[in-house]
Amino acid sequence: MFHARARPQVDGLSDLRAIASAPGKVILFGEHAVIYGHPAIAATTNQRTVVEVDVVGSKTTVNGHRIHERYHSYLLTAVDRLWEGDPVRLQTEGGVPSASGTGSSSALTVAAVAAIHQLKGDDYIEEIAQDAFEVERVTQGGGSPVDTSASTAGGGIAIAGLDTPPEIGDPLWDIEWEDGGWAVEAVHVPDLTLVVGNSGVKGRTDAEVAKVARAVQKNSLLRDTLNDIGQITRDAVAPLAANDWVAIGSLMDKAHDCMHMLGVNHPAVQKLVDVARAEAGTFGAKITGAGGGGSMVALTEKPEALAASIAAAGGTPYQVKIGGPGVQWHATVEEVLEAA
Ligand code: MEV
Known about the structure:
Bound molecules: (R)-mevalonate
Number of strands: 14
């Protein structure tokens, strides 16, 4: 069991505080389709967000400002749903770029939920995964547990609807939701550096999820596109296990085309996908995350060169190592920042 650490009162800090960090993620395959129960594969990145929670004062604050629905929606939902004690002071250090499709909201949510769980004296990882999903889902109004479960578990995960579980890895947990849910498994992901290119256009997960829902309702052919995305995910399992970059890259290209058909591509993201595909050494490139802006991800044998080309094209490149640890607790914020 984890227990909230006691420490002497210094500079107005309370003696009850907890610090947790959680990583961002890249979805390799399965965005959007996973909401409808199709399988997805995601992996953590080496970018991490840290949340420190102190029990202090007369009002709940975030980074010195009174907590507000408009600016701190995930944190407000987490505190409202999970904390019944005195007001808390939340401090965040975000290493995961926001609205980029690389899991900033899930990293923030998982770290906050884990810190609150620690304050309450429990460390049940499955409950953190369930609570983090609920906080994200309630705040966004839609979505699957792919991001929050990847960020909680670390490494790689496969996820699919409970009635058609992925059955390609080791079972981790089930996430319950209304009359359905998802099965989450741990899967091996290769030791890879991927290049993420942020278009700079902020994509909103909630808006893109709602857009796809409307499009699928109107155009039943898009159900086939969701099926195709699920099949691409299943087709990727063997090449991922065999480090078959050529096959993985070509599946990434196919997945991108499906997401384009779903209507979640954006010209600024397509531009970076085109830049990546034109670059020698690129195996494949696709939107990662919800789309509507945000980021693309590419598999390449020349990450430095591709990062430079993405920057030259106006994008912000990140070379991300996939498969890092999931949620963690810490004694100090500095400990996390130094390790990063
Ligand atoms: C967002 O990172 C992935 C989506 O599939 C939404 C979700 O599953 O929650 C677009």
